[in-house]
Design a protein that fits this description.
Helix content is 35%, strand content 23%. The protein has 197 residues and is of the alpha/beta class. It has one domain: Rossmann fold (3-Layer(aba) Sandwich). The chain is globular, with a radius of gyration of 17 Å. It starts with a strand and ends in an 8-residue tail after the last helix.
């Protein structure tokens, strides 16, 4: 069972957050992290983003995805409106960075992101957002507005004790490289990209 292991204030380019590490033990080098904006009002529905780790997009600014830009936009949104980013250690839709790079290599041969994962014998999306629900419960969040384009994330909330008040789109305009990636997310996973694709 996960629990808070450490917390501290974290000033960022977007504003101040409280950073809370969650894991089942305090020796875990890759805990899930809650980033709570300083102006968050827990008496109202809390703005929440479930964000899965993306080393390539967030650290190396890959153009293959929009993950880094989504994280930046979410941090900005939370500072302006209050809310929590749940940073989940689920790299590459939870297949890990090595398999993600292998999938990239297959994409260079013409496969899309889903086809590449399946070619490797992996699920199209292996992420599990139950941990995000557990984190919200520990933080005593009862109602949320969910920043997402992914209907699967909304389902996890709807099937929990936490009330989903509304979905807030988090749309990043495609570039010349990730257009097909976003199209696959829309067509295969049903992500909401009506106005940009």
């Amino acid at each position: 069972m996960i629990k808070p292991q450490a917390k501290a204030n974290l000033p960022t380019d977007f504003g101040d957050f409280k950073m809370v590490a969650f894991s089942d033990n305090d020796e875990n080098w890759m805990p899930h992290i809650a980033m709570i904006a300083e102006n968050t009002d827990f008496t109202k529905p809390v703005n929440v983003r479930f964000h899965s780790e993306c080393i390539t997009g967030e650290i190396f600014h890959s153009k293959k995805c929009e993950c880094g830009q989504q994280l930046d936009a979410a941090m900005k949104y939370m500072q302006e409106n209050g809310g929590i980013i749940l940073y989940l250690r689920q790299e590459g839709r939870n297949i890990g960075i090595i398999n993600k790079i292998r999938a990239y290599e297959l994409q260079e041969l013409g496969l899309d992101t889903v086809e590449a994962n399946l070619q490797l014998g992996l699920p199209a999306d292996a992420r599990d957002f139950n941990v995000a629900i557990d984190m919200l419960k520990i933080l005593e969040v009862k109602e949320i507005n969910l920043l997402t384009n992914n209907p699967e994330k909304a389902k996890y909330v709807e099937q929990s004790d936490i009330k989903l008040k509304r979905r807030i789109p988090l749309i990043i305009a495609p570039n010349e490289i990730n257009h097909s990636y976003l199209k696959t997310k829309k067509e295969y996973f049903g992500h909401h990209y009506e106005n940009v694709l």
